[in-house]
Amino acid sequence: MRLPDSFYSTVRARLGDALDVRGLDGFLATTSADVAFLSGFFYIATERPVYLWMPREGDPLLVIPRLDEEYAAQQGVTIETVSYFEFPGVVTAEQTLGAALASRRPKQIGVSAGLSIGAYRALSRALGGSTLVTTDAVARLRLRKFPEEIPFHEAAARICDEMLGAGRELIADALRRGTALPREDEIARHVIGYGTDRMYADYDLVVYTTKLAGGLVYAGPNSALPHGLPTRRRIRPGDTLILSLGAAVASRFVESERTFVVGEPTAEQQRYYEADREAQEVGTQAMRAGRTCAEVNKTCLDVLRGHGLGDFIRHRQGHGIGLQNHEAPWVEDGDDTVLEPGMLLSSEPGVYVPGHAGYRISDTVLVEENGPRRLTGYPRDLASNIIEEVR
Amino acid sequence: MRLPDSFYSTVRARLGDALDVRGLDGFLATTSADVAFLSGFFYIATERPVYLWMPREGDPLLVIPRLDEEYAAQQGVTIETVSYFEFPGVVTAEQTLGAALASRRPKQIGVSAGLSIGAYRALSRALGGSTLVTTDAVARLRLRKFPEEIPFHEAAARICDEMLGAGRELIADALRRGTALPREDEIARHVIGYGTDRMYADYDLVVYTTKLAGGLVYAGPNSALPHGLPTRRRIRPGDTLILSLGAAVASRFVESERTFVVGEPTAEQQRYYEADREAQEVGTQAMRAGRTCAEVNKTCLDVLRGHGLGDFIRHRQGHGIGLQNHEAPWVEDGDDTVLEPGMLLSSEPGVYVPGHAGYRISDTVLVEENGPRRLTGYPRDLASNIIEEVR
Q: CA neighbours within 13 Å on the CB side: how many for A147?
């Protein structure tokens, strides 16, 4: 799970240009996603700060807790590294960084607007003489995926599609055997375990910043709550069922979500399913370079409104996806970002009918020069997603 | 998984007092832990902001995305709630909050120092006329657990101890059957699945802010990296094995971590194990009201240093635990917090011998008037934690 060195050298060159334009002497990365993006060091965020100093000129520097030294070495991180012992520390992470940068005396240091007020104050004290300036330099670099990142998203997409298949098969198998249908929580555990196993089978050194594989599973009336957790409810014949799954290889995320019907769909189920499928198809085809996120979102959700389902919309069409499972840009009315080749987006309109069920189909879509390309490919037509009862 | 109403009314009364002292008109909670603590609304943090306004006088107000309205109702949240449609939104979360508070005109609003610079700016713009002031009012309220919270931590402790037993049994069972020993990743999946299943079996409506159950599993040389991820390495006779597990009921966390030896321990394994067990015992007994975190940490780690193992220390004795699996206070040299009854701490000194193995024993310990009380109770003596080979 390691990106080629060429990726990191390209990213650093592009970051240098962005810092030049902004008149910054360097960027101080403070989040696990930014640090992994710029350095290839993957860690799970805790209260122990990790700081990556990326100067416009000269060598980068990584500040980590002592606890992580061997772990960084195991990952093949070659950036100069200094460690502080612990959090909060007699000598803090910020003071350790300040001492290491003392001879370099950067004047203007870019930081992300996601930095907390507390960390901003601690850094400002420890980096006396330097000014911390919020900048979108790295956020903008992450908007368009680099060619070296795409195979990792593609690998995650294959696994995520297989997770959908594993969930479907768990139910189909119970129907064939005539045994009790699984519960929502059992299906969730099964598919997440399946995805995790696949990662470990395929990669020697598994790394991530938040998770390898995750998922929500909800059926029947529960599926009408887009953010509910899986429950102990057992799947029933006639249920609408959403498998909302994600996976990440080297923390490059995808999501793949499908709606299934257990047994022959009713006219009501067909109507909602087909409307959502159509909105997802139209919305996905609209994901083209030159259009704004807001336009694409409207194009997509207008399909649902056109079917008289406006009252059942609970969320936007989608969001950017990359080193975080949700990141900019946002495929929503309030985001005027113009789509460009290399952007990776979820396309996931949903229909939520209180008391009945929810319907959502999500693919991870790469904006290419010639148009959108789905990285996830699980079948989307209703016929393919009926889990048949055995009669 | 719901705390009694008496808990929330007590917390609000105590918060009111803290705001009075600080001259604040209210507190604006901006993190999932603070919101869950003050309101009983549990959600998983995403880019969609949730804001809970807790005025010194008058009624609280919850601002959530439209997506979560039914979910909040399902959880029985009775606080007045307004929703914004989506993130980033044509009307943002911050503007929605600003409109709702316009008639109340609070002057001084307390926020946590964990708030991001970006959110601080958006809130300041939307709440024109109000001043946002960082405060530790809620952080301090969370330092000492309330009596109503303890049963939830105790319930999590029982499950976490059982997870340890389930992991041990997976290996013991393979030894008995003479089948291949499980891999680290298989054990991790097994124990996390076990803990999750128990939660679902015991509670009607499962809620959390980050996770229900989690764990790291590492054996042999891998266990010398305290932050490594489980690998595909298969357990071997002779291995030292760390099961580092956590669980949360209503997001009230505990951790329970044990070191096992597969087969008869060598003299080297006995030495490291016994030193760590002794440090954990001495350090746990030191967790008494009136002592500082720094003193307790030193007392604990001095045991390891006394055994000549100072070079193998990689982290502090422990940390606070509550609605987050790591939270203040920090049982570390840099934290002079004086322990008080009601504080809940991990006690988890570790010994990490590069190339050989790691040893860590962790309990979740409640500071009571009479002294420390372990909520987790899995056996700690070496004899109990030998997983025997069948001969």
A: 3
Report the distance separating Cα B39 and Cα B336, nearest Å.
30
Instruction: Count A/B contacts: CB-CB distance under 8 Å.
Output: 148
CA distances (Å), origin A355, targets A219, A222, A279, A352: 11, 8, 22, 9
What's the complex ipTM? Answer: 0.95
- Residue B136 forms contact with A (CB below 8 Å): no
Rounded Cα distance, B136 and B121, in Å: 20
Q: Which one of A83, A116, A251 would you mutate to disrupt binding with B, by most B Cβ within 10 Å of its Cβ? A: A116
Q: Report how far Cα A161 is from the mean position of its chain's Cα atoms.
A: 15
Is A295 at the interface with chain B, CB within 8 A? no
- Half-sphere exposure (Cβ direction) of A214: Cα atoms closer than 13 Å: 15
Predicted confidence pLDDT, tens digits, chain B (391 residues): 889 999 999 999 999 999 999 999 999 999 999 999 999 999 999 999 999 999 999 999 999 999 999 999 999 999 999 999 999 999 999 999 999 999 998 999 999 999 999 999 999 999 998 999 999 999 999 999 999 999 999 999 999 999 999 999 999 999 999 999 999 999 999 999 999 999 999 998 888 888 888 999 999 999 998 877 888 899 999 999 999 999 999 999 999 999 999 999 999 999 999 999 999 999 999 999 999 999 999 999 999 999 999 999 999 999 999 999 999 999 999 999 999 999 999 999 999 999 999 999 999 999 999 999 999 999 999 999 999 876 5
Are A330 and B208 inside 8 Å of each other by CB? no
Q: What is the DSSP secondary-structure string of A170-219? A: HHHHHHHHTPPPPBHHHHHHHHHHHHHHHHHHH-SS---SS-SEEEEEEE
- A40 phi/psi in degrees, rounded to 5: 80, 10
Alpha-carbon gap, residue A342 to A282, rounded angstroms: 20
A302-333: string of b/e by CB count within 10 Å (b at 16+)?
ebbeebebeebbbbbbbbbbbbbbbbbbbbbb
Q: ∠ at Cα B193 (B187, B198), nearest 5°? A: 130
CB contact under 8 A, B88 and A228: no
Q: Is A221 on the interface with B (CB under 8 A)?
A: no
Token readout for B17 is 């007092």
Going along chain B from its start, the domains and CATH numbers come out as 5-141 (3.40.350.10), 150-387 (3.90.230.10)
Q: Is A369 helix (H, G, I), strand (E, B) or coil?
A: coil
Tokens found for residue B369:
């008037």
